[in-house]
Amino acid sequence: MSSASSVTRMTAAELSRALTAGEVSAVEVASAHLDRIAEADPKVHAFLHVDREGALDAARRVDAARARGDELGPLAGVPIAVKDVMATRGVPTTAGSKILEGWIPPYDATIVTRLREAGLVILGKTNMDEFAMGSSTEYSAYGPTFNPWDLTRIPGGSGGGSAAAVAAYEAPLAVGTDTGGSIRQPAAVTGTVGAKPTYGGTSRYGLIAFSSSLDTPGPCARTVEDAALLHAVIAGHDPMDSTSIPAPVPDVVGAARQGATGDLSGVRLGMVREFAGEGAEPGVAAAYRESIEALIKLGAEIVEVSCPSFKYALPAYYLIAPSECSSNLARFDGVRYGLRTGDDGKHSLEEVMSLTRDAGFGPEVKRRIILGTYALSAGYYDAYYGQAQKVRTLISRDFAKAFESSDVLIAPTTPFVAFPLGSRTADPYQMYLADLFTIPSNLYGGPAISVPNGLSEGLPAGLQIMAPTMADDRMYRVAAALETAIPPLHRPEI
Amino acid sequence: MATISRDEVAHLAKLARLAVTDDELDTFAGQLDVILQAVAQVGEVAAVDVPPTSHSVPLTNVLRDDVVVPGLAREDALAGAPDVEDDRFRVPRILDEE
Fold it and tell me: Closest by alpha carbon to A483, among A4, A118, A13?
């Protein structure tokens, strides 16, 4: 067998080959990662819950199935970390909130069902900003996650736990959810790959809902091929989700392998004029320009495109998402699950609900519920929520027009590298700016991926590739090509 | 244009069933004012004739066949409840006694 540390350094694709060849067992792979979590997670705090016994049981079942000669999927026996926003039967699920502390879901999210059926080994649940609202994981009620590149800095958010777990070799793969950038921005600042599939391409059933018209589960990995392999497992129509698209999943794995040949001849990359440097710190802008040079060398053609409505994407998002969350989070009322506060015989039901919600929700969640309640209230609806929905239409039209002259769009993933913990929490709007470049794809619904594109002042930056709706394969091809042209990151030892 | 008073925040919190403290009101009122002024930029966009988008997936009336399938067992549905009585969710008194 390979040594434990070499096992945790392997990609999911390498683990798949080693497991299939019988060079290593699923139990050995799971044990190596569980040991790595025990070693690294006291420093990184990527996990809220580690399911050691569950992981080893799942690994034993894969080994037994392989020994019987059963037909297994390519990722059978490969470990994975799951963002704590996804319901996992029998395993605590909190969405990073005190209001769900100790809750054990009685069912699995569709994504989790598909992971289990494909033989992936769930290591545990990863930390996140409470109810996925945040860009730094500092709004988790259970303490922040620390960026493996610099433990004094944020790992991005909301899915900072999933990205940090992958970056710190605690897991080769993770799943996250992306509502305004919660997969891509953490990927960028941790030097990992994170993809937001087409909205409706991956099921929302069993996600703890934040903003239902935007929430999209997707893969986190260290390589583009690994992200594509995971994408192929989790994507596809789900009758349990009424917004799930009843169409075949694009061949994302084939596209990633095609891209890995390093040939982008004939591919037109749309450079978004409004995002070319504006708002990005100098090192991030420089990494972006270098990526463009690299992509040109691979044969790609650069086209400048203009998306004038993108500048209104952030304001529109911070009306639409809070409005939807103010409605979605009404379910946390202390009746059917989770926390209940003030039930002492002296308070009415309404008072108990209000006390429970004040005790159970953190400040960012309360801010967004109040903001959403405001934006939806009589007298303000047309000026705020209604107007934001119209801006959403204009953003989709910008995308449609840009895709007439380009196959994918490119932009930096996030304007700045990982910032120091505590530096943006006092001014919520400064935190929101982290999602400046990621939000347009959420409002439009098309897929987008972040790939490492070098360092800025020693910290990872990300390039974002945005594709038309249901053209997820295109972004994987370009992402995999860029990966061949960018020197591999030397991740710091933790 | 978009300014929000401390009293308005208190009213919205009440509507949203959030028993916020005075300290929270002080903090939120200032922060929400900053956020609202920023998001009010959507008002700059000329969009009178633009239809709203609620959703990016052009699906409507997604229905399934009316077939009975097993749901959650009662004990599973009640397992996470803060308080249970007689196989039901127990809640505080809703109506005042006469």
Answer: A13
To the nearest whole Å, the CA of B75 is away from the closest chain A CA by 10
Establish if B19 belongs to a structural domain: yes
Nearest to B55 among A213, A315, A388 (CB): A213
Q: How far apart are CA A34 and CA A14, in angstroms?
A: 18
What are the residue ranges of helices labelled H in B2-73?
A: 6-15, 22-39
Q: Confirm whether pTM is higher than 0.90.
A: yes
Dump strand ranges (E) for A180-299.
193-196, 216-221, 268-272
Identify whether A158 is a catalytic site residue.
Answer: yes
Q: Is residue A311 annotated as part of the catalytic site, yes or no?
A: no
Q: What is the 3-state secondary structure (H, E, C) of A34-84?
A: HHHHHHHHHHHCCEEEECHHHHHHHHHHHHHHHHHCCCCCCCCCCEEEEEC
Residue extents of the structural domains in chain A: 4-261
- Rounded CA-CA distance A453/A352 in Å is 50
The CATH number fitting domain A4-261, selected from 3.40.50.720, 3.40.50.300, 3.90.1300.10, 3.40.50.10860: 3.90.1300.10
Residue A182 annotated in active site: yes
Burial class for B50, CB neighbours closer than 10 Å (0-12, 13-18, 19+): middle
Query: Distance between terminal CA atoms of chain B?
Result: 47
- The C-alpha angle A9, A12, A15, rounded to 5 degrees, equals 75
Q: Quick check: helix, strand or coil at residue A452?
A: strand
* pLDDT of B97: 58
Rounded to an integer, what distance in angstroms lies between the CA atom of residue A205 and that of residue B40?
A: 33
Q: Give the domain range for residue B16.
A: 6-44
pLDDT at B5: 93
Q: What are phi and psi of A319, to 5 degrees?
A: -105, -45
Interface of A with B in 405-424 (CB under 8 A): none
Residue A167 corresponds to which tokens in the numbers above?
A: 């970056």
Check residue B2 and give its pLDDT. Answer: 46
Number of structural domains (chain B) is 1
Intervals of chain A under pLDDT 70: 1-2, 277-278
- pLDDT of res. A2: 54
Identify the bridge partners of residue A465 per DSSP, sorted by sequence position.
A410, A449
Does any domain span residue B53?
Answer: no
Tell me the C-alpha to C-alpha distance, in Å, between residue A248 and each of A126, A201, A384, B47. Answer: 30, 9, 37, 35
Q: Would an 8 Å CB–CB cutoff place A265 in contact with chain B?
A: no
Query: Does residue A158 have a cis bond before it (omega within 30 degrees)?
Result: yes
